[in-house]
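Posting this for the archive.
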Amino acid sequence: MPEKNKIKIAVFPVAGMGTRFLPATKASPKEMLPIVDKPLIQYAAEEAVEAGIETLIFVTGRNKISIQNHFDAAYEIEAELERANKQKELELVKNIIPKNIACIYIRQHQALGLGHAVLCAKPAVGNNPFAVILADDMILPSNEGCLKQMVERYKELDSSMVAVEKVKKELLHKYGIIEGVKSNESDWVLSNIIEKPNTNDAPSNMGVVGRYILKPSIFDILSNTGKGAGEEIQLTDAIAAQLKKEKVYAYEFNGKRFDCGNKLGFLKATIEYGLNHEEIATDLRNYLKNLNI
């Protein structure tokens, strides 16, 4: 079992239908959409592994078997690459995640929201603090990954945390918006979170993005949380209740976030990750310079 102040478990809610990317997501999960040469979910898993996570819990739904297949061994492909002496490709396929990482798959039978998806992971998480990663939110690190930054901070704070960033006024209604007091360069002590407020009712311009570290007390709260915005059980509503009983922090991370839940954000991420990819960065940069736009 993980030590009290160490985060060794991460939950990945991946049951959503990805309707904004239809027809691409008709038969394939949105989490398997590729940014350059890796699917969204692999970037999220790699960020978790970098942060010291040892158990990955995927909360899945219908038509999500390809996620499980991606992290499983593919003996036919490996044998074919071995025969063709394609060692580089073979290593890529065999080392999607390190061998010591455990993967657990839990089915969310009803689409009742992010809060419900997290609650589905309770039997596997147990009485341990854990991380939640939304693969839609890709965060290009400035140095180390967002979750690693949060895990290091958690060692000192020993409290639930949400990642936040500044949000444009016209987009406030799309986020969970925090209310609180900034205690230093990166931390806020929270007094409230409001899910998708009207612009004029937003308590700040700091929005919650898809990285969380949560104390296990969140599970009892989620069990008693009713439907909120969008007629779904909202994780932010449960965190708002949690912070009335214990300290909860918001953390301003270092890195550049891309909302890959929409087409424009996905394209921006593809370009910027391409510009940081050792194989294609130079050619892509030259191509973009020469575009007659």
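The radius of gyration is 19 Å. DSSP finds eleven helices and 13 strands in the chain.
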